[in-house]
C-alpha cells in the first residue's frame, strides 16, 4: 500500500466521521420537530450543541489540514479533486470562525428564536427586537470572519447558501425578475378579480392526508426502503444518512388539493437526496452544490408537475377515493384553476407563483439594509409594510399586524440572512431545467401523461442528482441547460401558463 493510498484512506475515514455527525445532528433535529416530548427541548438543545462541538473539533483538527494539503498537492482525478475542494472549503470555514463566536451565536440564536415565539404569541415586536439586534451583530461579525476576496459581508452570507453568488449579481437578477412579474400579476388580477380561492371550503381528515401523501410519494418514485414520511407543523426534508431521507408533511386538517403541492415539494427535495450516485455516498459529493439547486428540485415537482392540469387528470380520482364527499362535484379544470389562483397578499408561504418572488425581493431589501446598518431593528415593522406595498405596487398586500408582517418568517430569528434569495434561485433553476427537458424530450405534458413520472425523474437523475457536488451549481445548470442562471425561462413559463388560464388577461 503506497503512502498516497494510506493518506487517502485516512482522509476518507475522517470525512466519514464528520458526515456521520451531520447525520446525527439531522436525526436529532428531525426528532425534535416530530416526536420529542415538549419538556425534553432543553436537553435536546444541549445534546445538539455537544454533537456540533465534536464535529467542529474534527473539522479544525490540524491533521485534517495536513492531509488535505498533501493530497491536494498531487494530481487527482475529478472525484478526488472535488472531494478535497469541498472538504477543504468546509474546514476553512470552520477554522475561520473562532469557537467563542460559534458558542455566542448558538446562544443568541436560541434566545432570538424563543423571543420570536413570544413576540408572535403576544403580538409584540418589541419582545423580539433586542434579541434580533444582538443576533445581527454576531451574524455580521461571523460574515466578516468568512469574507473571502470581497468586502461585502452579505456576499459571505450568500456564498454560504449559494456558493459564488454575490449581491452585485443577485440584485439586478431579482429586480429584473420582479419588473417582469409586477405587470403580469396586475394583468391576471384584473382578469380574475373575484376568484381568490373558489374552493376554499375543502378539507380532509388527518388520516386521509397521510394516505394521500404516501400514495403520492410512491407514484413520484420515493424509495420507502431508504426513507420515511412523518408529520410535523412545518414540512421539511432532511438527509439523516446516505440511506435515510426523512420528509414530513403537515399535521393540520386542510385542503387536500393544496396539501398535494406541499407533499410534492418535499418529495422533490427527497428524490434529490435519494438520487446521488451510489459511488458518492459517504463522501462530501453526495450533497447538493447549493441550497438553490436543492430548492429547484422541490419547486420543479411542486409547480411544474403538481400544479399542471395533466397531473390532476390522474391524481384527482385518487384524492376523491381517499377523501370522498367534499370533492365529489369538483372537475379537473376547477382543481387546476384552484391550485393556480392568483391572490396577492401579505404572507409568503401562501403566495401564488406570481407573487412569491416579490416577497423574496422585499426580504432581500430589508435584510441587506439590516446588515448594512441602514435600517435600525426597531423600525423593521414600518419598513416591512412600506417595502411590501412599494414592491407589489398594491395597497392590499399591507399586513394587518406583525404576525402577517415582519414576524411571519423564522429565518432571521435563526440568524439566516442570505437564505431567502435561494427560493428565487430555485424557481429560476426549476424553470430552466423544465425548458431544457422539453427541448430534449418534447412537451412535459406528454412525458407525464398517464401518470408517468419516470422519464422526468430519470432525466433529472442523470443531469443533476447523480452529479451531486462533483461540480458547482453554476456548472451543473450550464451543463444541463446550456445557460447560466437566468430569469427568462421562468418568466416565459409564467406568461404561457397564465395566458392559458386567463385568456382575457392582457399578458404580453
Ligand atoms: Zn423547499
Task: Provide a compact summary of the structure.
The chain is mainly α and 508 residues long. It is built from 20 helices and three strands. The protein starts with a helix and ends in a 7-residue tail after the last helix.
Could you name the key traits of this structure?
508 residues, mainly alpha, three-stranded mixed β-sheet, 20 helices, 3% strand, globular, binds zinc ion
Describe this structure in words.
63% of the residues lie in helices and 3% in strands. It has helices spanning 3-34, 41-60, 62-72, 78-96, 99-122, 129-146, 153-161, 167-191, 206-220, 256-273, 291-305, 309-323, 332-339, 353-372, 380-392, 421-441, 444-448, 454-463, 473-481, 488-501; strands at residues 227-232, 237-239, 245-250. The longest helix has 32 residues, at 3-34. The protein is mostly helical and 508 residues long. It is built from 20 helices and three strands. The mean pLDDT is 94. Helix 9 packs across helix 10 (256-273) and helix 16 packs across helix 20 (488-501). The structure holds zinc ion. Zinc ion (ZN) is lined by residues 265, 269, 295, 298.
- How many H/I helices? 20
Give start-end ranges of low-pLDDT stretches. Answer: none
Catalogue the ligands. Answer: zinc ion
Order of helices and strands: HHHHHHHHHEEEHHHHHHHHHHH
Q: What is the CA-atom radius of gyration, in angstroms?
A: 23 Å
The total beta strand count reads 3
The biggest sheet, with number of strands, parallel, antiparallel or mixed sense and barrel status, is: 3 strands, mixed
Structural class designation: mainly alpha
Q: Give the integer mean of the pLDDT values.
A: 94
Strand content: under 5%
What separation lies between the terminal Cα atoms?
67 Å
Note the overall shape: globular
- How are strands sequenced across the largest beta sheet? 1-3-2
Helix content: 55-70%
